[in-house]
Amino acid sequence: KKSQKLLDTYFKTK
Amino acid sequence: MFEARLTQSAILKKVLDAVKDLLSEATFECSDSGIQVQAMDNAHVSLVSLNLRSDGFDKYRCDRNLSMGMSISCMSKILRCAGAEDTVTLRAWDSPESIVFIFESPNKDKLAEYEMKLINMDQEHLGIPETSYSCVVKMPSAEFTRICRDLSQFGESITFACTKEGIKFSASGDYGSANIKLAQTADADNEEEAIIVNMQEPVKLTFSCRYLNCFVKAGPLCNQVQLSMSDDVPLVCEYKIGDIGHIRYYLAPKIDD
User: Fold this and answer.
1) CB–CB contact A10 B129 (8 Å)
2) CA distance linking residue B131 with residue B228, whole number of Å
3) Which of helix, strand or coil describes residue B134?
4) B35-76 pLDDT tens trace
5) Beta bridge partners of B45
6) Are A7 and B43 a contacting pair at CB < 8 A?
7) Which of A13, A2, A9, A7 is nearest to B42 (CA)?
C-alpha cells in the first residue's frame, strides 16, 4: 500500500 | 555493566502501556546518553520513537553500548508486578542474555527481582529525517484522546484540517458524519489547557483511527500532546515524558491506492 511505502521511504534505512 | 534506576516505576509502566499495542518486541539501544527505541509496527504504517535521557534517571550507568531485544508483552507483564510507589532498577551485564528488573518498596522492606531473557532481533536502523512542518499544534492530551475516541465511531479514519485559526477533526461513514473544531486559545494562562497553532501552510491530512487510538495510550504521560503535520509526510504525535524524554509516534497519512 502507498501509506506503507511512504513510511518505508521516509525512514530510509541507514 | 548497565544500570538504570527510576524512583517512580509508574513512569516506566506508563511508557509500556503506551507502546504495547503497537510493538510486540523492540530493541532497546542503551548508551551513555540514555535509552532509545525506534521500531515500526508489524504493518509498517507507524513508527514509535522512544527516548529516555540518562540525566533523567535517578541513577544511570552504561559502561558500553548495548542493544537489547526485548519482548514488550513480557516486559509489560513484569512491570505490572511493580507497586505504584516502587523504585525500579534495570540491570544487565556486558554481552547480556537477560535483563533484571528490580522493584523496591518505598520503605525498602520489599525487594523483588524479575529476570527476563533477551531475544535476538534483526537490527533495523532507521533514519528519521529533519523536517520542518507546515503546522504544529499543541493541545491537551485528554482532549485529543477524547476526539479520537469519539470520531472513531463514525469512520475508520479521521481528517485533520489545520489553519491559523485552529484545527478541525472530521470523520464520516455509513451512519453519518462528525466534526470537531478547536480554536487556538487567546490567552494561554493555563498551559495545560492551551491550544496553540503554529502554521506556515494550511494542511489537510487523513489518518487511520486504529493507530491514533494506539497513540493516545500515551496520554497519561503528559497533559499536552504536540501534532506536527506537512503534506505527504508522516504525522508526528509527541508526548513528553516528564523531564526524562519523549515518545514520538509517526503515522503515514492515508493515500488512495
Assistant:
1) yes
2) 10
3) coil
4) 999 999 988 889 999 999 999 999 999 999 999 999 999 999
5) none
6) no
7) A7
